[in-house]
């Protein structure tokens, strides 16, 4: 009898979560909030689940399906041109990425001291690896307050997506364009359903298989990186990967946004005003730091101010790529740098974090041990 009750209730909870997410996404799109179909569902479900406790459910496999779609779109960006650009400028990419990561470490240190949250949480909240990617990485890391990481990442993302276009089209950069039109176009795509077949079936089978295999062998963020790498390899072998229509990308964002919204626990967010203020301040410092690094980048390579800034801006690769396309910046350089930072964060940062946290724990034990 109890099993029947649970069976009947779970689909209703799932349906309520989906309806709430769709309303949130539609509202955010209506008022032109950046990335509406990720942030809208996330915030709407967060509010709904806080007010109506235990009324929502969202199976992890649905979230994983969304990650596979996002991973596929990342893999599409890893074209031969982008990889060639990365190979040519690898030393510069590594230098700029390390300098940006160093700035993030300092910011995380000050955030942890001023807000009294643990350094691991502050660091994952400060690293600019993309909202979806960093939340998933935080979920897989022990001792992390996921709510704080998400709040820090969302505030940073909102500020970057809004501030970078304003900066790019300011007199400093010398570009002329409608900022409002650009912000509204950041999540759009012209891909059609008819162009998907027949290649999409091959990419779908390989992406899903690599995601499941990667998860089985404990590959980091397997449902995201498995499809990304497999898609890139198939493309390099000569098979074209079709771009996904807007509706599919929006659906993937909804799948992920609902899960993140349900993971947010407001009770775990102490000193809310202080944390939000620090998040805004650290985002501004990170943006100014990226702006400063762009001038160093320009001295190393003969590129425009806009290309340098968009390459190093701590935003999403897709958003920065669309802005670069709009102003005729060097798209391969922008995508190459953004892509390099994304994969550096996923492969280099986790082991570095483990080493750092292990060293800190050992040092603490030695300090507290009796002499």
Automatic annotation (TrEMBL):
It holds the Pfam family AbrB. Keywords: Membrane, Transmembrane, Transmembrane helix. The chain crosses the membrane at residues 12-29, 35-52, 64-84, 90-111, 154-173, 193-214, 221-238, 244-264, 276-300, 339-357. InterPro entries: AbrB_dup, AbrB_fam. It comes from the Bacteria. Signal peptide: none annotated. PANTHER family: REGULATOR ABRB-RELATED. This is AbrB family transcriptional regulator. It comes from Paenibacillus allorhizoplanae.
């Amino acid at each position: 009898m109890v099993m029947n009750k649970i069976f009947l209730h779970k689909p209703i909870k799932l349906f309520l979560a989906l309806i709430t997410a769709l309303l949130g996404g539609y509202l955010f799109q209506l008022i032109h909030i950046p990335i509406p179909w990720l942030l809208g569902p996330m915030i709407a479900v967060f509010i709904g689940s806080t007010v109506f406790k235990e009324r929502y459910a969202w199976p992890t496999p649905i979230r994983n399906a969304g990650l596979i779609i996002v991973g596929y779109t990342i893999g599409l960006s890893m074209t031969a041109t982008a990889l060639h650009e990365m190979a040519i400028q690898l030393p510069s990419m590594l230098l700029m990425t390390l300098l940006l990561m160093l700035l993030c470490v300092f910011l995380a240190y000050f955030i942890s001291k001023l807000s009294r949250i643990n350094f691991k949480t502050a660091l994952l909240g400060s690293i600019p690896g993309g909202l979806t990617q960093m939340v998933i990485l935080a979920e897989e890391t022990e001792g992390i307050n996921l709510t704080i990481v998400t709040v820090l990442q969302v505030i940073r993302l909102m500020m970057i997506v809004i501030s970078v276009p304003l900066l790019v089209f300011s007199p400093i950069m010398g570009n002329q364009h409608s900022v409002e039109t650009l912000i509204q176009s950041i999540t759009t795509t012209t891909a059609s359903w008819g162009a998907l077949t027949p290649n999409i079936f091959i990419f779908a089978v390989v992406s899903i298989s690599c995601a499941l295999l990667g998860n089985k062998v404990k590959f980091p963020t397997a449902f995201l990186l498995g499809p990304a790498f497999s898609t890139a390899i198939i493309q390099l072998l000569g098979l074209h990967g079709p771009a996904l229509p807007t509706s599919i990308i929006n659906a993937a964002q909804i799948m992920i946004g609902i899960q993140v919204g349900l993971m947010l626990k407001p009770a775990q967010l102490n000193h809310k005003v202080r944390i939000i203020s620090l998040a805004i301040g650290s985002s501004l410092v990170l943006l100014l730091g990226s702006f400063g690094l762009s001038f160093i980048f320009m001295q190393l390579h003969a590129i425009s101010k806009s290309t340098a800034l968009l390459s190093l801006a701590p935003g999403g690769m897709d958003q920065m790529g669309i802005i670069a396309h709009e102003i005729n910046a060097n798209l391969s350089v922008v995508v190459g740098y953004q892509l390099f930072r994304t994969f550096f964060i996923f492969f280099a940062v986790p082991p570095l974090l483990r080493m750092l946290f292990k060293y800190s724990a050992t040092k603490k034990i030695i300090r507290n041990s009796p002499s």
